Amino acid sequence: MKLDKIETFVFGNPPPRHGGRYFIFVRMTTACGITGVGEIYNATFGPDLCCAMAREVFTRHFEGSDPHNIETLWRKTYGAGFTMRPDVTVMGVLSGLEMACWDIIGKAADRPVYDLIGGKVNERLRSYTYLYPEEGDVYPDPDALNVYNDPDMAAEVAVKVVEQGFTAVKFDPAGPYTIFDGHQPSLKDLDRSEAFCARIREAVGDKADLLFGTHGQFTVSGAKRMARRLEAYDPLWFEEPLPPENPADMAEVARYTSIPIAAGERLCTKHEFARMLEAGAASILQMNLGRVGGILEARKIAGIAETRSAQIAPHLYCGPVVAAANIQVGASSPNFLILESIGTFDGPYMSCLKTDIEWEDGYVIPSSAPGLGVELDDDAIAAHPYQDDQLHLTLEETPALP
Predict the structure, then answer these.
(1) What is the pLDDT of residues 21-78, one digit of tens each?
(2) Cα(56)–Cα(93) distance, rounded to whole angstroms?
(3) Dihedral, CA atoms, 211, 215, 219, 224, nearest 10 degrees?
(4) Which of 86, 144, 285, 310 could bond to 269 as cystine, CB 3.0-4.6 Å?
């Protein structure tokens, strides 16, 4: 079996754009006609350039190779150009191609990927969702009251998603995140964050865990001040309280608070996760399968985490092919904790696929279909080109002031 062809796709995610502005997909085909799909989670360059990078990597390292040779293909790409270190753009491209190889391997074996990386240990996967606006765009006017800045509105939405079956909800009211972080949270940010936890805890009681999200915007002392405000409401986690560069600093926050620290959506490869574990910076690892290095790398990270009594909670702020890859790793990992869902995996978000992701009463049910269990809908993707110039996700470009 030899890899013969690659196709790349950019899908402009329709409103309300849950999961991001666009998704970058690849499809590889073998000389014998087996196809495999993958997704690149890369926010550092525009999607068209990322597609060109994927074609370059395929031509240089993957074309003509046996897709079973995951480790060799991974090493050739990781070490290209005398790098041998986690480069977020390279790793995003490699992740997409790597998961497409697994999709091909699974289809050739007529087995789901989880059967090939240890077997299914979790029959269903507990899931959580962000509290999204009930109507309108996921990027509302920041000056208007919305689910991101109004604790009462957030509590109302939390009740509705718990009634759907979710047993955990995530929200991030902690204020701006900028290219100049970390900063001290303002008193207003502290008060709002505490109010969110208080209102949502009052509304859902013990029916759901609270997942307090941030985007690495605080200093060590600022994160401690925030954690002290939140502890009374017993969140399941405090997510990425500091920028990701220095695990030792995050470890100081982890030692200070009783709230578990979750982190990792911006990290690549087992090496960065190992440093975080060695420092004691986080006990819940949020690898994103479209960035971390792919399925095998994520499975290695899950194994390393087991040695430190850490759990995994695969991250998802991108498209449904990464979601399908997350499901494969979650299904086969004994230390799986919870899976990020985009709502109940329905609506415009899923329109780029011909296949569904099964969600039932708060849980994702791993598909028994071969490979990743998803197929792209080429016509739907062509009908939704991305016509903007904004990156998938951005930081504010002015410092956060009190």
Answers:
(1) 999 999 999 999 999 999 999 989 999 999 999 999 999 999 999 999 999 999 999 9
(2) 10
(3) 0
(4) 86
- How do beta strands 363-364 and 209-213 pair? unpaired
Could you tell me the pLDDT band of residue 144, with boundaries at 50, 70 and 90?
A: confident
Query: What tokens appear for 244 in the block?
Result: 């990701």
- C-alpha distances out from residue 271 to 44, 84, 86, 286, 322, Å: 21, 11, 8, 14, 21
| Contact between residue 353 and residue 375 where contact means Cβ atoms under 8 Å apart | yes
Taking only the tens place, the pLDDT of each residue in 365-396 is 999 999 999 999 999 999 999 999 999 989 99
On whether the CB atoms of residues 279 and 242 are closer than 8 A, the answer is no
Q: Is-contact 168 236, C-beta < 8 A?
A: yes
- What digits encode the pLDDT tens for the residues 321-360? 999 999 999 999 999 999 999 999 999 999 999 999 999 9
The pTM for the full model equals: 0.97
* Contact indicator for 267, 287 with CB cutoff of 8 Å: yes
Q: Which two tokens stand for residue 58?
A: 């395929």
> What Rg, from alpha-carbon coordinates, does the chain have?
20
Assign 3-class secondary structure to 7-37: EEEEEECCCCCCCCCEEEEEEEEECCCCEEE
Three-class DSSP labels, the chain? CCEEEEEEEEEECCCCCCCCCEEEEEEEEECCCCEEEEEECCCCCCHHHHHHHHHHHHHHHHCCCCCCCHHHHHHHHHCCCCCCCCCHHHHHHHHHHHHHHHHHHHHHHCCEHHHHCCCCCCCCEEEEEECCCCCCCCCCCCCCCCCCCCHHHHHHHHHHHHHHCCCEEEECCCCCCECCCCECCCHHHHHHHHHHHHHHHHHHCCCCEEEEECCCCECHHHHHHHHHHHHHHCCCEEECCCCCCCHHHHHHHHHHCCCCEEECCCCCHHHHHHHHHHHCCCCEECCCCCCCCCHHHHHHHHHHHHCCCCEECCCCCCCHHHHHHHHHHHHCCCCECCEECCCCCCHHHHCCECCCCCEECCEECCCCCCECCCCECHHHHHCCCCCCCCCCCCCECCCCCC
Structure tokens at 252: 């100081």
